[in-house]
Amino acid sequence: MCRHQAAKYQAENQTFGRAAQSAQRGFSLIEMMAIVVIMGILAMVAIPSSMSRIIKEQITAALPLADIAKAPIATAWSLSQEMLPDNAAADLPSSNKVVSNFITDTKIENGAIHMTFGNKAHPKIKDKILSLRPAVIEESKVVPVAWVCGNAKAPDNMTVKGENKTNIPDEYLPRLCR
What we know:
Blueprint: H1 2-23, H2 29-62, H3 67-80, E1 103-109, E2 112-117, E3 129-136, E4 146-149, E5 159-160
Antiparallel strand pairs: 1-2, 2-3, 3-4, 3-5
Organism: Methylotenera oryzisoli
GO cellular component, one term: pilus
InterPro entries: N_methyl_site (IPR012902), Pilin (IPR001082), Pilin-like (IPR045584)
């Protein structure tokens, strides 16, 4: 009886062992397809968010170029309460000479600074414009000029000068420019 039970036990273990071995051989086609679908979905979600981040970084990296125009505009306002009409009045080179890795043109128009993206800029923002406009308190020239980036709102009690020509979609603008 003991031998009979031992033989039965051994036969059951061999059957179970074969089943376990065949289950461990690899992925079935369905399992592999599920993994491919999940990876595809993750890639579709990751690529646009990565693109948006890259564009925002390029816009942020381009902003310091406007600093060379901000100083003469602020000085003109504090001295005469007037906005500079163009690059020449700010003693800056022509707009196509004020460039950087991501900017092909920096133009002053009635105090506003308009930066056109190009060169190494992402194709989604190539030939798009970001405006930086001065915000002032008209009755007081001692209050420093604040700068309004893109579609952002002006600080309370301040008047924004110049036209906003920003045509970059808000989804690509850094927070300070929305």
